[in-house]
Design goal:
Elements: E1 4-7, H1 13-17, E2 26-28, E3 31-36, E4 39-46, E5 49-53, H2 57-63, H3 70-75, H4 81-89, H5 100-108, H6 115-129, E6 132-135, E7 138-141, H7 146-150, H8 154-158, H9 165-178, H10 191-199, H11 206-215, H12 227-237, H13 246-256, H14 261-289
Antiparallel strand pairs: 1-5, 2-3, 3-4, 4-5, 6-7
Helix pairs in contact: 4-14, 5-11, 10-11
Length: 290
């Protein structure tokens, strides 16, 4: 099997794909299969090289943001204990550049769901309404276009285990599919205007808007605050204050973490989630050994 390859210094493919920013890549042999836009792609890492099939080197490098100056970004983080621990744990994790509609739709479905559940919903939507692609003997499905989802009934989406999120996804798909919400033109807007436009869409609040700004529009200051991050902020940065409002947390994050706040958030999020999962794995292993 002949694979093209490119250099990928300061990058960890598995950690990046497992960090809760994208939900459809699946393990396949020594690598992963998934889609980048409409293309089925296989990619694996061998030390500081990425070997791949199904896309060009330019597409791979762009998608995985190999041009981001990661060492410089990490040096810009605050030098507090929580941030330093997250930075050391997450070495090589990069913010992926995701297709805008796919990212928006995925995070609309993410509300009040864990990563495993989001992956299940993404898989169901793709298999039922996406387009089939073959890659290295495996098969993947593209994320369905907005105009494809716009033609469905709410019941069709509920059958993909979306629950109440089905109504919001359908309404937003109809706005995007009709051109009323032009996600590509919105890329020209400044941060606050972009956030306002995103929040005007059904199913999009501040957290989802910031996720989309970070992962689809490359607004690296955007700092999504979900339950994981709120817990980290309260425990690590405000341990002696009983009452800290959501607005106060938001202002703190915007000023304290700076222009690469989105990277800081992703590192804090991934570190917290993995640390929480470790005791559960140890407990299961202990039970198995009895």
């Amino acid at each position: 099997m002949r694979l093209a390859h490119i250099t990928a210094d300061d990058f960890d493919l598995a950690r990046t794909l497992d960090s809760g920013q994208v939900f459809h890549w699946e393990k396949c042999g020594d690598g992963f299969i998934g889609t980048i836009g409409t293309k089925g792609v296989y990619v694996e890492q061998r030390r500081n090289r990425l070997f791949f099939k199904g896309a060009t080197a330019k597409v791979i490098a762009h998608y995985f943001a190999l041009d981001h100056p990661l060492e410089e970004i990490c040096r810009s983080f605050p030098e507090d204990a929580a941030m330093c621990a997250a930075r050391d744990f997450c070495q090589g994790l990069r913010i992926i550049r995701q297709p805008r509609w796919e990212c928006l739709a995925t995070f609309i479905t993410s509300s009040m769901k864990q990563v495993a559940h989001i992956r299940q919903m993404s898989r169901a939507l793709r298999e039922r309404y996406g387009e089939h692609r073959k890659i290295l003997g495996g098969q993947v499905y593209t994320f369905p276009r907005a105009d494809r989802i716009a033609k469905l009934a709410e019941e069709d989406l509920r059958a993909c285990a979306l629950g109440y999120r089905a109504k919001n996804l359908l309404a937003t798909a109809r706005r995007v599919g009709s051109g009323e919400a032009d996600l590509e033109k919105w890329s020209q807007l400044p941060d606050e205007s972009l956030r306002e436009r995103l929040c005007s869409l059904p199913g999009v609040g501040a957290k989802v808007a910031n996720c989309v700004m970070l992962f689809a529009y490359e607004r690296l200051r955007a700092f999504p605050i979900d339950v994981w991050i709120e817990r980290v902020l309260r425990q690590k940065y405000f341990p002696r204050r009983r009452k800290v409002t959501a607005a106060q947390l938001r202002v703190f994050c915007e000023t304290y973490f700076g222009e690469h706040g989105g990277y800081a958030q992703q590192y804090l999020f991934h570190h917290a989630r993995k640390r929480a999962a470790a005791p559960e794995r140890e407990a299961r292993a202990g039970c198995s050994a009895l």
